[in-house]
Design goal:
The chain is an alpha+beta fold and about 450 residues long. Helices cover about 45% and strands about 15% of the residues. Strand 10 and strand 11 form a beta hairpin.
Length: about 450
């Protein structure tokens, strides 16, 4: 499945935004109402070469075909009115820009490499990201939910040659107890006072909300956009935040202070469209003092000693002591939430899938070991003290039905998904106008239906 997805999304990879000057532009493919230019193919090829990507065949065959596949999905998405979140696109662009700057060395070098200003690069990336997300959403719509029975998974396992079974890397199961250090009243009051001061500056006209967000908000992704979140549904926001944001009606007013698990916010309405809202916010997070962190470590160190003395079980400690609501009711057992993992929804993690701080601690532990307290940053960006227990470790092996049912189930689901998408492309080819210029059609295409008999 990874190979198919890689192929489908070749055309989404960032392109060098200028072609070699000796390339004479021409239309080489037409798919429906859309043209694929020779310069499009050349710039894609240049980018892939710069990334040391290898072509499994002629790039002048591979690249335009994948661009054509993309256009089939995009045309269908127009018909089906597929929409994607603007805020998600902006976040992905910001993430890409930051990674590109880190890799190339500086903003100036990035602009020189692309021969464009950063603002131009961002706008071009937005369109690429938008098309990528539209295609992904279109594919999800086409495939829907794939339901498999255990008998289908067993049949697949029994029929597949044993040397073709996937290799399952080493996985671990980890239980965790976390303790959040206390935040002093002085720190909380100081945070609220700062937000009240921001509100006063905004309402008096001294400062723009967006300016203060860029300067001070600790939601760093939205801060780059002046605190703007983009159009978003109520269900995509934390309830406390949504209840206040969706009750705002005057774009000139600033909300009351809102507390969520991330910290304290003030919110300003930008625009409402039906059941979606675009607003901006400023987030400030209370800081944990060294003393509070040290006190929390002492408490968990005492817990560690009690566990070693068998005064109670790790499961009991997780249920009654742990602050982590996601694992507390699961007796401390962590669940893999990586959608792209074969272990998604299970307690199994490959080592690189664990949060970095936990992975470093677990790496040298034996099954049944309990760690000493350590500090970590949660996915809510809170600093906490934690201890972990290595519940199980499964060494790398060939997949088998008893240990790896979930991985095998996902493999079968991916194959079904691949078959459905392949069938859709083949059917769409038959009803879509395609013209390939002379000299560009003599290829061993993945989908031969481009060439009409």
């Amino acid at each position: 499945m990874k190979k198919i997805w890689t192929a489908i999304f070749l055309s989404f990879l960032v392109c060098v935004t200028y072609a070699q000057q000796n390339v004479v532009d021409e239309i080489v493919w037409v798919v429906g109402d859309d043209a694929i230019l020779r310069s499009d193919i050349e710039t894609q090829r240049l980018y892939m070469l710069s990334e040391n990507q290898r072509f499994d065949g002629d790039p002048n065959c591979i690249i335009p075909e994948q661009m054509a596949i993309q256009k089939l999905y995009l045309n269908q998405a127009k018909i089906d009115s597929i929409e994607v979140s603007e805020s998600q696109i902006i976040q992905e662009v910001d993430r890409w820009i930051n990674n590109a700057i880190n890799q190339i060395g500086s903003r100036e070098k990035l602009e020189k490499y692309f021969n464009k200003k950063l603002s131009q690069i961002k706008e071009e990336r937005k369109e690429v990201m938008r098309e990528q997300q539209i295609v992904q959403q279109m594919q999800r719509e086409l495939v829907g939910d794939i339901k498999l029975t255990p008998s289908e998974v067993r049949r697949f396992y029994n029929e597949i040659p044993k040397d073709s079974l996937p290799n399952i890397p080493t996985t671990v199961e980890v239980q965790i107890v976390t303790y959040e250090p206390n935040i002093s009243f002085e720190e909380t009051d100081a945070i609220k006072a700062r937000l009240r001061d921001f509100t006063e500056q905004i309402t008096s006209g001294k400062m723009e909300f967006s300016t203060l967000a860029r300067l001070y908000s600790e939601d760093y992704e939205s801060a780059k956009r002046g605190g703007e979140l983009g159009f978003i549904g109520k269900g995509q926001l934390l309830p406390e935040f949504a209840n206040v944001a969706f009750n705002l009606s005057d774009p000139k007013r600033v909300s009351q202070i809102v507390q969520t698990e991330y910290g304290y916010h003030i919110i300003q309405l930008i625009e409402k469209r039906g059941d979606r809202i675009n607003c901006r916010h400023i987030l400030l997070k209370p800081k944990v003092s060294e003393k509070e962190l040290a006190d929390a470590t002492v408490k968990l160190d005492s817990l560690y000693n009690d566990l070693q003395a068998d005064k109670f079980s790790f499961e009991e400690a997780a249920i009654f002591i742990s602050y982590d609501k996601d694992t507390r009711n699961n007796k401390g057992l962590m669940v893999n939430q990586n959608y792209e993992s074969n272990n998604y929804g299970t307690p199994k993690f490959e080592m690189q899938e664990l949060p970095q701080e936990i992975g470093k601690v677990v790496y040298n532990m034996e099954v049944g070991d309990i760690s000493k307290p350590f500090t970590m940053i949660t996915d809510k960006q809170k600093e906490v003290v934690a201890i972990v227990k290595l519940k199980a470790r499964t060494e790398a092996h060939k997949a088998n039905l008893s240990d790896d049912y979930q991985a095998l189930k996902m493999l079968v689901e991916n194959r079904k998904r691949e078959e459905l998408l392949n069938d859709w492309v083949k059917k769409k080819q038959k009803t879509t106008y395609v013209r390939i210029s002379e000299g560009w059609g003599g290829c061993d295409f993945q989908y031969p239906g481009w060439i009409k008999e």
